[in-house]
Amino acid sequence: MVIVLKKNSTEEQKKYICQFLKEKNFKLNEIVGEEDTVIAAVGKVSMDIREVELLPGVNNVIPISKPFKLASREFKKENTIIEVPNNRGQIIRIGGQHVVSIAGPCAVESREQMMEIAAAVASSGAVMLRGGAYKPRSSPYSFQGLGEEGLKYLKEAGEKYGLPIVTEIVSESLIPLMRDYVDVYQIGARNMQNFDLLKKVGAIGKPVILKRSYTATLEELLMSAEYLLSSGTDSVILCERGIRTFEHATRNTLDISAVPVLRSLTHLPIIVDPSHAVGIRDKVPSMGLASIAAGADGIIVEVHNHPEKAMSDGAQSMLPSQFDKMMHDIEALAPVIGKSVAHIREENSSVVHSGQKNSSGKIVCVYSGKRGAYAEQAISRYFDSHDVEAVAVDSFEEIFQSVVDGKADYGMVPIENSLAGSVFQNYDNFSRFEDVSIAGAITLNIRHALLGIKGATISNIKNVYSHPQALSQCKKFLDNHKDWNFIDAVSTATAAQFVAEKKSKENAAIASSVNAALYKLEILAEDIENDPGNFTRFVVIQANHTTKPKGAKEANVPANMASFIFKTKNEPGALYNVLGVFNDCGLNMTRLESRPIAGQPWRYWFYADAEIKNQNAAEYVKSLMEKLSDKVEEIRLLGIYSELGK
Ligand code: PEP
Ligand code: MN
User: Fold this and answer.
1) Boundaries of CATH 3.30.70.1140 in the chain?
2) Which of 76, 236, 256, 576 is most buried, by CB atoms within 10 Å?
3) Parallel, antiparallel, or unpaired for β 98-104 and 340-341?
4) How remote is the CA of residue 32 from the centroid of ligand 2, in Å?
5) Whose CA is nearest to atom 10 of ligand 1?
6) Residue 553 has what pLDDT?
7) Within its chain, how far is the Cα of 607 from the centroid?
8) What pLDDT shows up at residue 381?
9) What's domain 83-341's architecture?
10) pTM beyond 0.70, yes or no
């Protein structure tokens, strides 16, 4: 704090003030100016500044440190991302790039009601299920909730659709009973300052949604978060749910400015409950959208299949159709603010994940294209081919989606070609799919062969099929055969398959020589590329919740690469400052790429690869990330991994 002394204060008064503060373990610094004398005191934050204001000779006291510490931005610069696992091996993250929607009725009323509402909200895109089993009602005569029976229905419905459960806890005596059912505890607005309850719920260590009381300031909300954080949990989600004002057209007044204000004061995730704020069903969707536009990490809303019969808060409970429409609108809005909407993966997709083997005992790695594609070769080189099943999908995006959904353990993704440059789509996929990380990398020398059917010779050939890039990469060889027709194909493997099917000695394909065996073709000429320095670098991706690749050949080779994705601050020298940290740490940055951020013109995601030669790569990268944290707006470590073929 800064203590400004009165102009006519005496030396004795000053001595007394200093003595008083020293006894309370403050470190003092006196600044004598032309106008005022000021004492800067650094020390305990819990002191009531009024005690100092009352001392003789003191004009006023300016607090400089915030009363909340663990919740403050000063304590932790980067946003906290809270992870809530579901029963499908997926982790739902609150506070990152994904917008989360929590939905369900105000109160659990029956099994049938819960099952029906859960089905509806899940199909519209909710990622967690809410519902009160213990209802703190303003009137003791109102419905108080079904208690444990309600928790059972809630859990059963959540498990059926892969939705973790959010429910309110009203008393510490309920902790032993609720423990088995609850994924995220809710502290209701009425209990925001029930400090004893906060301490007990914080000590459970599970994520907690803390709702702002309708009479609390944001500082009071953060002080309550401080109670939870100092009692043992590091997973607190703040929830704005409307405050009481003189306006009675709505149930409460949604303080939407709480979102950006809290964002600057705290690292904790922020969600908004527009249902309890406005209290009128038809007004909820627009406030839900406004919350996301204001930067909230998610929303929690009330949805009821028969709101007219709801036992509590029927008027503000959205119909499933209204919720569905709002979710569509949020899908459209999210990219505008550089985010995407979190989804629950399909139920039947959890068959192969976490490095488990599939039914034939192999791990699954997906790639884009057809059998015989270069990515397939990269898979059989990177993994032990006996242990891996390479599965083709139709697009790069599908590779990422399959990995996130647990349909595949790994994906093989081309990221750069030494002649053609970056594969931009895949850089963009890394910013879109934040649940994906890099598990490894491999660089493949691209070597083309001319393939024909059995009995064909170079002198028979009239038509050559291949991907246009491969045709141009073999130009020197093809220039010797000016009479041939060159025909574009979707991929080199498609060309090989086409030539095999047509069974004409006049046709040939340019593709990798592995296609010869695959499509029963003969190699008419090998290594026909102009430039032997034709390399493609692939990265092996995995979902963040899986472990290291099993069956990867390099398993015993220490990590030698790290990749990052970051957003610089929008100020002069921002990128220079980041690069300076890499330089100071002696890291060899092997690649830097930038991609525009969707919805934010002239802002970019930067991608950096760096070589690490340090034994303890994890520690090294951790300290690098710490040094980078105040130089960037956002940073994500894509992976620390070993690279083959470099
Ligand atoms: C609720 O979420 O059902 C609820 C009672 O909310 P609040 O505590 O914000 O009134
Ligand atoms: Mn309610």
Assistant:
1) 2-62
2) 236
3) parallel
4) 56
5) 189
6) 46
7) 16
8) 81
9) Alpha-Beta Barrel (3.20)
10) no
